[in-house]
Design brief:
about 150 residues; four-stranded antiparallel sheet; globular
Length: about 150
């Protein structure tokens, strides 16, 4: 029997709190790798994204009417934009009926920024098939029953 993976709970939210995410992150106390995406949208919004295939997320929205889902490029991911405060705490993608996400580490509540290890990322020229396969492999799946 293998030991269960130890997790820590990270809370994330937009500025006004309408969009909230609970993230159960593996290996508490370890460095969290984040990616500064080089696409024009992320550069303009300063998004710094993270995901882990052994983590789990639960998305909670107080008022759905105040959330806009923005798609661009390959139109395969939804950027959850709060209409009230303009912050994007999460991006989701549905693949084969399962929802996966990357989280904006800039929206983490109570996480010391020294725990974040940042690198650049560029997915320009990636085929849709390769992009979805990468997401299935690397993005954080939604918690079962969430």
């Amino acid at each position: 029997m293998s030991d269960p993976v130890s997790h820590c709970r990270i809370q994330s939210s937009c500025h006004c709190g309408n969009i909230r995410v609970m993230l159960d992150w593996p290996a508490p106390g370890s460095t969290i790798s984040v990616r500064a995406c080089g696409c024009s949208y992320c550069v303009k919004h300063g998004g710094v994204w993270t995901s882990h295939p052994n983590a789990r997320f639960q998305l909670n929205v107080a008022d759905e009417s105040q959330v806009r889902k923005y798609r661009f490029g390959t139109r395969t991911a939804d950027f959850h934009v709060c209409s009230t405060c303009g912050v994007v705490p999460i991006v989701t993608c549905v693949i084969d009926g399962s929802r996966y996400a990357v989280l904006n580490a800039n929206t983490f509540d109570g996480v010391d920024k020294s725990q974040l290890s940042q690198a650049g990322a560029n997915f320009e020229g990636e085929t849709v098939e390769n992009r979805l396969a990468r997401r299935r492999r690397n993005w954080t799946p939604e918690a079962v029953g969430a």
